[in-house]
């Protein structure tokens, strides 16, 4: 039978991955499609991604603490997701913000910004796939534990 910690892990994982997907694949595109001012849309999306990044680090640490000893394979997924967050947001974003502050007026700065944005988006996509694997594997591991417990 799943413990309270197992249930907490599944709930926290679902909230983390769900919020990540919602912001990246629903909210941000909607902002850019709906707001007439692309700078405002980018500012709001950037703020949401900042909050999501801190949420990712927090959830990653807590989930890692919950899974490390009992579910080593899940801990690799969690670690991968946190690494993607750190690289995509905390490493690349400051460079993107610096370029954005210049006004993106030259072809060179636009190209650099586009390249960094593409890399950041790639890390986010990898994080999304790892998140899907984590969500799908979480209940499977709980079911396997229930089966093993019933056998004993």
What would you note in describing this structure?
This protein is mainly α and 152 residues long. The chain has one domain. Helix content is 89%, strand content 0%. It has four helices and no strands. Helix 1 (4-34) packs antiparallel against helix 2 (38-67), helix 2 (38-67) runs antiparallel to helix 3 and helix 3 packs antiparallel against helix 4 (107-151). The relative contact order is 0.13. The mean pLDDT is 88.
What's the number of extended β-strand segments?
A: 0
**Major β-sheet, in short?**
none
The proportion of residues forming helix, as a percent range, comes to over 70%
Q: Given the helix and strand composition, which structural class is it?
A: mainly alpha
The fraction of residues in strands falls at under 5%
Helix count from the secondary structure assignment: 4
Shape: elongated
Query: CA-to-CA gap between the ends?
Result: 12 Å
Order of helices and strands: HHHH
Mean pLDDT: 88
Count the domains. Answer: 1
The residue ranges in which pLDDT falls below 50 over 5 or more consecutive positions are none
Radius of gyration over all CA atoms, rounded: 18 Å
């Amino acid at each position: 039978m799943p413990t309270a910690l197992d249930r907490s892990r599944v709930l926290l994982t679902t909230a983390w991955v769900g919020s990540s997907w919602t912001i990246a694949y629903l909210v941000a595109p909607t902002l850019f499609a709906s707001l007439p001012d692309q700078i405002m849309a980018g500012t709001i999306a950037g703020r949401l991604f900042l909050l999501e990044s801190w949420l990712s680090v927090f959830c990653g640490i807590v989930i890692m603490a919950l899974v490390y000893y009992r579910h080593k394979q899940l801990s690799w997924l969690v670690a991968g997701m946190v690494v993607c967050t750190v690289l995509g947001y905390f490493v690349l974003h400051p460079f993107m913000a610096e370029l954005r502050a210049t006004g993106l007026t030259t072809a060179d700065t636009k190209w650099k910004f586009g390249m960094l944005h593409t890399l950041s988006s790639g890390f986010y996509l990898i994080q999304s796939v790892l998140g899907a694997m984590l969500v799908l594997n979480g209940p499977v591991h709980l079911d396997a534990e229930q089966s093993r417990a019933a056998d004993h």
